[in-house]
Each structure stands twice: as C-alpha cells, then as structure tokens.
Amino acid sequence: MQEFEHIQSLWQSHSVEVKITSEEMLDQAKKEVNSIRTKSLFNIGGMVISFLAISSLLVYFDFSSWATFLGIGIIVSAVAIYTVLLYREHLLISRNDFTEHPGAFLKKLHEYQLSRFNLYNKLYWFYAAAVSVGFILFFFETLNHLNTWVQIAIVLFTVIWMGFCATILRKSYMNKEKERIDLLIEKFERISAQFKESV
C-alpha cells in the first residue's frame, strides 16, 4: 500500500507542461473551421433538395383541394426562408480569411454563434409551426384516400417525429454546436493574443 501511495505521489508531483505553438493551434482551428463550413454547406444542400422535392409535388401530382396547395406553399416558403438564413450564417464564417485576420474572424465567429443560437431557439419554432400547419393542410386531401389506421399512423408518426426533432434532437444538436463553437472561439482568442504578443 505504501508503494502505491509513493508511486501516486510521484505521479502527481510530475507535471508535464504541454506547449502548443500558435501554428499548431492555427492548423487545428483551420480544420475545425473547414469542418463547420462543410457541415453548413451540407445543411444548405439538404434544404435545397427538400425545397425542390416538396415543390415537385405541385408539378407531378394533381391536387384538387386548395388546402393542399396552401399547405405545400407554406412548407416551401418555410424551407426557403430557413435556407436563406442558413446561407446568411454560412457567409459569416466563409468570407474572412482567418489566417490573415484572426481578430476579424473572431468577431464574425461571435456573430455566427449568436446567429446559431437565435436560429435554434427563436426561428426554429417559426419553422416548426409553419411546417406543421403546412402538413396539416396537406393531409386534408391526401389522407382521405387512405384507410383510417394508415391515417392515424401517419398523423401519429408526424406528431412524434416533430416532437422528437423539436425537443431531444434540437437540444442535443444545440449543445454540441455550442461546445464546438466555444472551443473554436477560445482557440482564436489565444491565437489573437499570441499574434498581439509577437507584434
């Protein structure tokens, strides 16, 4: 037991100082920024595909109810607005060259973080409400052709899926995104401080 305590005290007294250069930190930050940019482009691409897929319903199917057209119109409008907002956020982190101006990029990164917070807290509820109303109107005509159990299953699945996305999935994604951006901001603050010291 004494040997274990002796080894433990030696281990605790031996501290290794890890130094990371500003170039290594900049390389790590560059990878993370590129990952965020790529993910942002995939999100925008997914929304554009959704926009085209939902819009194509109007071209390839013959609907007779005004409610169906209104429902699809609401969904398409909500997807279009959300896509524009995602693109605007993407521009915040893609326009600046962070290797030349880490301070300016840090400012844009703070704006991006605030924008993401607003997108997932305030604007998300507008999007979810618009899509829900759109689906309700869309279902008026389309569900009439199906039997009762299939109607109930589709409505129940839609409600559960929207609830899952609005609560568990959204919160998990928000926490992961916040942690990732916070770490990136911390790295750029250190990089900016090191550049100021070296000047």
TrEMBL record:
<keyword id="KW-0812">Transmembrane</keyword>
<feature type="transmembrane region" description="Helical">
    <location>
        <begin position="149"/>
        <end position="169"/>
    </location>
</feature>
<feature type="transmembrane region" description="Helical">
    <location>
        <begin position="40"/>
        <end position="60"/>
    </location>
</feature>
<keyword id="KW-1133">Transmembrane helix</keyword>
<dbReference type="InterPro" id="IPR036259">
    <property type="entry name" value="MFS_trans_sf"/>
</dbReference>
<feature type="transmembrane region" description="Helical">
    <location>
        <begin position="123"/>
        <end position="143"/>
    </location>
</feature>
<protein>
    <submittedName>
        <fullName>Uncharacterized protein</fullName>
    </submittedName>
</protein>
<feature type="transmembrane region" description="Helical">
    <location>
        <begin position="66"/>
        <end position="87"/>
    </location>
</feature>
<keyword id="KW-0472">Membrane</keyword>
